[in-house]
Amino acid sequence: MQQKNKRTYYLGFCATYHDPALAILDEAGHILFAEATERFLQYKRALNAEPDNLYLLPELLQRYCPDAEAFVVAGNWRDSRPLYERLAAGLGWLSPRGLLGKTPRPLVAPVPTFQLHHMMASQRQAIQRRNLNLARILRTDFPAAAVTFRDFDHHLTHAALACYGSPGSRGVCAVIDSYGEEGALAYYAYRDGRITPLFRSRGAQSPGFYYMKLTELCGFDWMSGEEWKVMGLAAYGQPDETILMNLRALLSVNGLDLARPQPQSHASLLRHLERYRRDPATPPETAATLAASGQHFFAEVLHGLLNGLHRYHPEDHLLLAGGCALNSSANGRILSETPFESLFIPPAPADDGTALGAALLAWQQDHPGQTRSDTHLSPYLGHAIPQKSIERVARYSGLPVSWHPGGQIAEIAARRLAEGDIMGWVQGRAELGPRALGNRSILADPRTTGMGERINRDVKFRERFRPYAPAILDEWGPDYFLDYQASPYMERTLKFRPAVREQVPAVVHADGSGRLQTVRADWNPLFHRLLSAFHQRSGVPVLLNTSFNVMGKPIVHSVEDAVAVFMSSGLDALVLGDFLFTKPGSGSA
């Protein structure tokens, strides 16, 4: 329980071997900070990095918890480990020699057993070393503070962010993931602040593992998080019935769970799918049929599980979390393919969000029956670039620069975007989660047919088939999208109305869809003002919005990161706060 009469802060840590993160709440339950470690390190996914970084964490604690008398430290994995993991560790299978040696009896999973063992070994080490840096920091900087440690079930921390972040007070939550403590699936009932377990799966059957295998067969690297490429490529192909038949035999829905195939038939099916593996010497587009088939099948599985959940526990409101909730293409069809009437997906449904989920669980334990005052989960919870850093660049960079205070920057930026500039846009605090939502974005005019290809080629340096997101003023959503659903975190893909597709070709994907971001003034006032100013100039209430990074790198974190991407790519302009930068020789800023 909370330390009586002590000013208490709640620290949540995602100690997963990939996508580590940290979150800080005050004693009233207000979210003070939440961000993935990859941003600070500028290391994609921060694989095998700890969330309590020795350099970063002291500064954060001094900024957000200077008067702390007690800390509650919450983790996103249970200390007690599953039986199979303990046995594998005891037999040496999770050691370097074990990983290099002869594989034991293969697990019935789409990915090789030695890769699963590497994941287990990495996760086991991440749990063993968690909070070590934190302990040293607290002993040095807060020696008088009382410290309590708590560990939570992994899937429960996913569910906590979806439930406590939801604007509603009830619903049913599905966590669909690669793996948790013992399986890939977990379901919960949510009502008035209480999260009640309904069912959890056990075993290696996993939609997440399946999609990792699909990513690999398409010629991409799931370890680097390239599942996005499969989703983008799928729009260029059509599902093949032979591939679908094999996929359905490999993985099938059984109520709330996934059926377990026999090991012999499972191995045979995997060998058959290997025939479709893309040759690395061929372009990615040659895997379009496989990607389309695999994405179609993934949506079948997801929607089948959710239909089973609704039969088991009928509710109107669905809360969705886990790594598979990042599949925006399948998410956009949930309300049409299932009986659910509304859907909430948090901005960070994958593991980085579990840091905040763990902190919320710990706070809720100490405040039973209380509700937090937040009615909308803001994604803008990360670092802000200090004003003095921006002013230093303005003074010393030698770049053409102009200053536009008092909100004028939105009108100036809208004019340049309407004239064809591709712009880096940095404002306020960084977004939690993998998507740029108007604070760490690259923006462009969606009316230009070749704009998406230009950004892929000259700015992001990525494959030409990758799509771009439309950020749209909420009130115009029904005019641009069929069966419009508000999508504040860019979490679902919807079909554009045919009549408007020619107006915004740069954000219409090959299948007529767009992974939209809904923009409202009370969610992001300055970004809303920018969109409104662009709408007034162009007649289009939409901007092309993509993350401020280049392929293979996290979203920019510091002013130096932003300037480096600006100067080493085809960006035309850079906005940092109220300052507009252009490139030498391009005219005045």
Q: Would you write up a description of this structure?
A:
The protein contains 21 helices and 24 strands. The mean pLDDT is 96. It folds into three domains: 8-161 and 350-370, Nucleotidyltransferase, domain 5, CATH 3.30.420; 207-344, Nucleotidyltransferase, domain 5; 382-582, DHBP synthase (Alpha-Beta Complex), CATH 3.90.870. The termini are far apart. The longest helix has 25 residues, at 288-312. Helix 8 (207-217) runs antiparallel to helix 12 and helix 10 (241-250) packs antiparallel against helix 11 (263-273). It has 589 residues and is α/β, with parallel strands linked by helices. A hairpin with a 2-residue loop joins strand 23 (573-576) and strand 24 (579-582). The protein has an eight-stranded mixed β-sheet with strand order 14-24-23-15-17-22-18-21, with helices on both faces. A five-stranded mixed β-sheet has the order 3-2-1-4-5.
